[in-house]
Design goal:
Elements (H helix, E strand, L loop, with lengths): L2 H14 L2 H21 L3 H10 L8 H10 L6 H4 L5 H14 L4 H8 L10 H12 L9 H8 L3 H18 L6 H14 L5
Helix pairs in contact: 2-3, 2-8, 3-7, 3-8, 4-6, 6-7, 7-8, 8-10, 9-10, 10-11
C-alpha cells in the first residue's frame, strides 16, 4: 500500500469511526510504525494494521455476530461471554471486505491485537503493544514504564502487558480470555521469566 492509498484509508476511517476512536486509531498506527522501525519490521504493515485494528469496534453486537458467521467463525460459549473481544474476531473480515486489505500478516495482527496468543509474530507483538501504549492512552497502571520497556525489549513488554492485564482482571473477579493466558504462559516458557 503506497502513501496515497494510506491517506485514502485514513479518510475512510475518519468517516466510519467516532472522533475518539479515530484519534486512538491514529495513535496506534503511529506507535506501531515507530515500534516497527525500532525492531526492523515492515513499517507499512505495522501502520496498516494499526489503522485497521479497530475497524470493527463500533459495530453493534448483532452485526458483529452476523459478520463473524459470514467470515466462517463459529461462535463459542467462551466467545459469547466476552463481547468486548468480538471486534477483533470480525476485524480481519471487515478489513478485507470494506477496506480491501488482504495481507495475511496484517489481518492476523488485527485478529490478535486484544488478547495476544501463543507464538505471536513480530508484527502481532508490535500491534498488540501499540494498542496498549499509544499516546492517547492514560488509564493503565505503570504506563510510563511500559512505554519505555516497549522500545527496550518487546518480548518483555508483551509479557508485562499480559501479566498486568491478568492481574487487573483477577482483582476484579473477571475471567481472562484463554488466549491472553496462553500468551502469558508461552512467553514465560520461552523467556524463562520467573514468577514475581
Amino acid at each position: 500500500m503506497n502513501r496515497k492509498d494510506t491517506a485514502e484509508l485514513r479518510r475512510k476511517l475518519e468517516k466510519n469511526l467516532s472522533a475518539d476512536r479515530f484519534q486512538h486509531t491514529l495513535g496506534v498506527a503511529y506507535t506501531a510504525a515507530a515500534l516497527a522501525m525500532r525492531y526492523q519490521a515492515s513499517v507499512e504493515d505495522a501502520e496498516l494494521a494499526g489503522l485497521l485494528h479497530d475497524c470493527a469496534k463500533e459495530y453493534g453486537k448483532k452485526e458483529l455476530l452476523v459478520l463473524g458467521e459470514k467470515a466462517g467463525h463459529v461462535w463459542s460459549e467462551e466467545d459469547m461471554a466476552s463481547p468486548q473481544l468480538w471486534h477483533a474476531i470480525v476485524g480481519p473480515y471487515v478489513a478485507e471486505q470494506k477496506y480491501d486489505v488482504h495481507a495475511p500478516q496484517v489481518l492476523s495482527a488485527i485478529r490478535w491485537h486484544t488478547t495476544g496468543k501463543r507464538e505471536l509474530s513480530l508484527l502481532e507483538k508490535i500491534v498488540f503493544t501499540a494498542d496498549y501504549i499509544e499516546p492517547n492512552r492514560d488509564k493503565a497502571d505503570n504506563l510510563a514504564e511500559i512505554r519505555h520497556l516497549a522500545f527496550e525489549n518487546l518480548d518483555d513488554c508483551v509479557y508485562r502487558i499480559t501479566e498486568d492485564t491478568l492481574r487487573y482482571l483477577a482483582a476484579r473477579n473477571v475471567k481472562a480470555d484463554r488466549k491472553t493466558e496462553e500468551c502469558y504462559q508461552w512467553l514465560k516458557e520461552v523467556k524463562h521469566y520467573d514468577d514475581k
